[in-house]
Amino acid sequence: MYIYSLSIYLSIYLSIYLSMSIHFSIYVYSLSIYLSMSIHFSIYLSIYLSVYSFFYLCLFIIYLSIYLCLFIFLCLFIIYLSIYLSTYLCLFIFLSMFIHDLSIYLSIYLSITDETSHDALSFLLCIFSFFFLSFSIFFFLFFLTIFLSFFLNILSFFLFLSQYFLSFFSSQ
């Protein structure tokens, strides 16, 4: 009887042990499934985040290159405008020197001529020099205002685009 009761106790003990081991194996199996899913999830998440960050990095680089191209365009425009204005100022200086030389030649001519035609030629010289000087100043100011207004329009357009890109970046 003793063996019989020992065998019953042993079978109960083994059945409890086996049920615990089955529960433990189920727990280990579910833990392994969870870990494998989390590994796959982390892999998918890392792939998604890398693609997402790469996309926005490329977008940022594209916008930055557009912004830099506009800035380079503005710098080139300023250089061209300064070259044009310096050429225009040189022409205006040349025109002023021409008026100065013309007035010197006319004054020499007036000093050579006789006294009767002196008053009429000096009056004609004053009218001619005043007309020529006012005409040259008018053209200088006219072209200067045209190109300055063009330059200011380009500058305002550039500032508008930069504000647009900055607002677009801040909204992202």
List key phrases describing it:
172 residues; mainly alpha; 2 helices; transmembrane helix
Structure in words:
This protein is rod-shaped. The protein has helices at residues 2-112, 118-171. It has one domain. It has two helices and no strands. The protein is mainly α. The model has no long low-confidence stretch (mean pLDDT 72). The relative contact order is 0.06.
**Fraction of residues in β-strands:** under 5%
Distance between the termini: 83 Å
Roughly how much helix do the residues carry, as a percent range?
over 70%
Order of helical and strand elements = HH
> What are the low-pLDDT stretches, counting only 5+ consecutive residues below 50?
none
Number of contiguous helices: 2
Q: What's the rounded overall pLDDT mean?
A: 72
Domain tally:
1
Kindly state the number of beta strands: 0
Q: Biggest β-sheet, characterized?
A: none
Radius of gyration: 47 Å
